[in-house]
Each structure stands twice: as structure tokens, then as C-alpha cells.
Amino acid sequence: MGNNGGVPRDGGRGGTKCSFLLSMNILLLVIQILVPALYYSLHSSVGSTALLETASGGNSAKAPGSGVPPPPPPLSRQQKVLTKATEGENGGDSSRRGPASGTFNGFNVYYRDPSASPDAAPLHSTVHCMGENFGERSWLYRSCEFRNLCFDMIDREFVLFRSAAERSMNEAFLSHEKREYVSLSSSMENVSVSLGGINPQWGWKPNQSEALEYWPTVIEDELNEGYYELASDKVMVTFHSMAAVNVGHLLWDDFFPIFTLLDMFQLARNDLVLIRYVLKNRPRALWATCDLRDNTQQLCRKFFGKFLPLLGVKAEKQHTIYDSILELYGGQEPKSKYVCSPKGAVGIGMLTDHGLKTHGWDKSDYESTHNIGRGRVMYEFRNFMIRNLGMDPSPPVSSDPPYKVVFSLLSSKDPDRHTDFHAQIEALESAFAEDSKVIVEAYRFKDLTLEQEVQKAMDASIFVTACGGGAMTSMFLPKGGSAIVYYPERPTSRQTGKHKHPARLDWDYLNNMGYARVHWLPTTSMDERNQLSAFVQLIQNEIETISHH
To answer: Which residues have CB under 8 Å from 325's CB, separation 6+?
Structure first.
């Protein structure tokens, strides 16, 4: 019962029906593919033509024989300037309308003129201060945030514009029968802050530490004329550097309080427009500050240049009040002397790591703790700086081997702390000679790039350093890591008179870093056999602790 050459028994009618259905299915499949393709091709061509017309002034000619519009010609220098003017610093600023008018210290600014429109409100400033302690020197403890903090390009001074509502409020309290007991955190009247941290060495004679008491110039009327405005994601901060001639002071007496100021007012996610204030109220700069001498200015430029990226600030974008610059596109003449920031902040006096103490030089420094309870802020400060370098701060110390013990060599110029840890490194290498789980590394961190310096600390399980400015790298230890800090337990070459006691420098900061364990060892006899044996035992204990982290 063959099939007769493959011919169906129904004479071929079933085959015809199947062929018809197959043809219809193929046709439907072709339609499903071609229609969407044609649709997207059409819209893509229209979109490309429109973009080309925009870029080339309406010329949509196609390349001969190609059927494809040619690429737009290279932008001229003038077009590049105009393109830059329409872009924000971070690839576009959707919060601003229209092109930028120019830049202020490298940040785009936009010209605003309230008088140009009857519907536009004049500009006024607001303030919110915290930290008031009602004392004679409450300005040391006060920090303030602003809406619409402005900079006067002619007077080189910060300016606030008082609103009609605040004027009315202040006038109402003038007649208050107990006005001396009234404290208003949103008033610009009779209020001041400290521009920077206090160095106790300055003392409290007239025009010494008090020179840092400051408040922006207050103009009693709202601003009803043109001004240049920074984008809404910028925050303008002015500060006086306490002693950026030393990297430890830079990080803990400038950067840490600046971050704390931003964090207090939830401003840390904004781009920082940082302006260093140069004191105008004294003929000479304060001792050990940036503007004291030519060599101190050079040191400050060097350290700011290397470490400013930790704050998310490019070195070329950080200026003083005197070299801040407004550059307008197209060679325009300035229409206003004011550059205003929608957000601003000032007041870091007691936000440093030491307050009114001397970092551990004086015996009285140990009678109180300035940083108690700031462990979380310190950890956020660490993470903030690491993220600003484009790195991930989240990995904790690894509980798995290998465990890295990193030494910071010759980190201090002080002969009492100028050590290469030769004996300690040799002792560890001997103790772990047969143990590949422990790796010993040693660096002169000042010779590394900033990114390398931070990464070496982040990769360390244990960080060994002498106390002082060089110990600041230990801040970048991962959560769960350890720091071993050597200090001179007897009077050092810099200690005279009342300073004859152990100097555990920066103990107040290091001992409150909640994310790392910190140990202190004396430098005297540090290379003797029993001291080296104890050091090795400490390393072994820390590795055991880390392995169970």
C-alpha cells in the first residue's frame, strides 16, 4: 500500500490547502518584520535629518551616492564656546534655563535680572544657624547655611540681602520687653561665626584668634537688579585655612570641618564652590597660616593641589577671595558685580578635630575629648573622600588571607618621629617567613599619587605609622582594619616648658574612628628585642581578630 510516488490519496487537494496556509503564514511574518522596520527607519531618518538641520543651519544635503546624510562639520572655536555655555559642569544642568553666561571660578553662571520681568521676584537671602551656646564666644560654635549667598566681585566680600519679612520680624522684636533673652536662628542680626579652626598658639590677645570672627555684609534691601547665579546643585563655602602647610592640619582642621559643615545641613551631595578667605582685619597673616610668607603660600598651594580632589574640588577651581574670577562668554562686559549661589555655608570654628586644644601637645589636651560620638561622621568623611576619587569605599577589611601590613616610612620631619621602621619590618618578615598569608609592604607616602596613597591604605589590614600629619593616611583604612601609631612618650625636641609629657598627637581624632582599631606604642626602645617581640604578638592578635571579622 505505497503512496504512489508520494502523491496524496485525496488527489492533491490537501497539498494545495497546506501550501496556501503556509504562504499566508509567510506573508504575515514578512509583514510583521517589515512594517516595524519601515516605521523605525522612517523615524530614524527624520530624527537624523532634524538633528543635522539643527547642527548645520538647515542644510540636510546627503553625501553623493550614499543615501546617508554626511556627518556634521567640526565645530568652530566659537561654536565650541557656545556649546560649552549650554552644558553644565557635569554634562548638563537641567535646573537652569538658557545658555550659561560664563563661569565663576570655573563653574557655569547664568545671568538673572528680576527687573526684566514684572513677574520676577527680587532676590533675598535667608539664614539658618545652629550651635548657639549663648556664651561670650558663641561665634566659635555657630555654623550657618544660607539661601542666596552672594560674592561682590568689586569689594571682594560676601553679601547677604535681607528680606522685607526679616526686617519686619527684627523690628517686632526690638520692642520686645525681654529682647536680650530672645535668640532667633533665622535672623542675620547680631550674629557671627568663625571662618576657620582656632590655633591655640595664636592666643586671645586683641586681633589674634578673634580675627576669625566673621559675618557677610548685610544689605538691607532685596536685590532688584541683575546678578550672576550659580546652578542649583552648587554650594558656596568660604573658610580660613588654619595651617594647610601641614597635611594633617589640612585634612583634619580644614577638610574635616568643611565636610562636617556640609553634612550638618545635608549639603554634602552638592558640588562645592570653595573660596579661601584671606583676613582683611590684620596687617599680617596669623602664625603658621598660608599667607604668612612666600614659602607658606607655596606649601599651601602644593598640599591643596594634591589633596583638594578629596573634597571633589579640582585644584584649578579653588580660589581665594582675591583671585576669584568671573569670565563671561563672547567677550561680554559684566552686567553685575554680584555672583550668587542658591546655597551657601560658613562657620567651622569648633568643627575641627581639636576644638580649642593643641592636638595632644599639652597635658590639658587629655582632660576632655572633643570628638566623642563622631565615629559615624568620620566614617562618612572617609567614604566621601574616597568616592570623590572615583573609588568604592564600601569593601570592609578582608577576613581572608593574604593580610597586608603596610608601613608608612619617614612620615614626619621631627627627629623623634622620623623612622623607617627597619627593625619592625625585619621582625615581621622573620616571624612570617614561612607564612604566605601575611604580606609586608612599606612606602614613603609623600612620593605616591593621591590615588595610590588612598588605595594602599584601603588595601591594608594593618597600617603602621608614626603620629603626626603622616598618620592621616590611616583614615582610609577599611572598616575593621587596624592602625598602630608610634609616639614619643617623653619630651620631644619640640616640647619645652610646660610641654614635657608624652605627645600622642591627634589621639582625639584617631581614637574616635569607630571603623578601625587604633593602638599606641612608644618610640623609646622600640627597636629592642622585647619590644619587637611584643610588636609581632600584636600583629598576630590583630590578624586573628581580622580573620573573624
So the answer is: 104, 105, 319
**pLDDT the model gives residue 263:** 98
Of 331, 239, 227, the residue nearest 290 (C-alpha): 239
Q: Check: CB of residue 112 under 8 Å from CB of residue 227.
A: yes
Concatenating the DSSP letter of every residue in 180-225 gives GG---TT--TT--EESS---GGG-SSTTSGGGGEE--EEESS-B-S
What are the tens digits of pLDDT across the range 126-162? 999 999 999 999 999 999 999 999 999 999 999 999 9
What integer pLDDT is reported at residue 106 of this predicted model? 97
Q: What is the pLDDT of residue 68?
A: 34
What's the pLDDT at 92?
44
Dist. CA 147–CA 144, nearest whole Å: 10
Cell numbers 583671585 correspond to 323
Averaged pLDDT, groups of 10, the chain, 549 residues long:
37 43 51 46 35 32 35 39 42 60 97 88 97 95 98 98 94 82 91 96 93 98 96 98 95 98 97 97 94 95 96 94 97 96 98 93 90 97 98 97 96 83 96 94 95 98 93 97 92 54 91 97 92 97 95
157, 195, 347, 419 from 144: Cα distances, Å: 17, 11, 6, 43
The SS3 of residue 160 is strand
CA distance 377 to 513: 9
Cβ atoms of 252 and 325 closer than 8 Å: no
pLDDT of residue 427: 97
Distance CA 192, CA 195 (A): 9
E strand residue ranges, 220-358? 227-230, 234-239, 271-276, 319-320, 326-328, 338-346
Specify whether the CB–CB gap between 488 and 360 falls below 8 A.
Answer: no
- Cα–Cα distances in Å, from 545 out to 298, 311, 461? 44, 33, 11
Rounded Cα distance between 539 and 327, Å, is: 56
Cβ atoms < 10 Å from Cβ of 279 = 19
Residue 498 pLDDT:
52
Do 461 and 482 form a contact (C-beta atoms < 8 A)?
Answer: yes
The residue written with cell numbers 603660600 in the block is 297
| C-alpha to C-alpha distances, 126 to 54, 172, 232, 268, nearest whole angstrom | 42, 18, 15, 19
Residue 13 in grid coordinates: 487537494
Q: What angle do CA 192, 197, 198 make, to 5 degrees?
A: 95
For residue 270, count CB atoms less than 10 angstroms from its CB and return exposed for 0-12, middle for 13-18, buried for 19 or more. Answer: buried
Decide: 203 and 76 in contact? Cβ < 8 Å. no
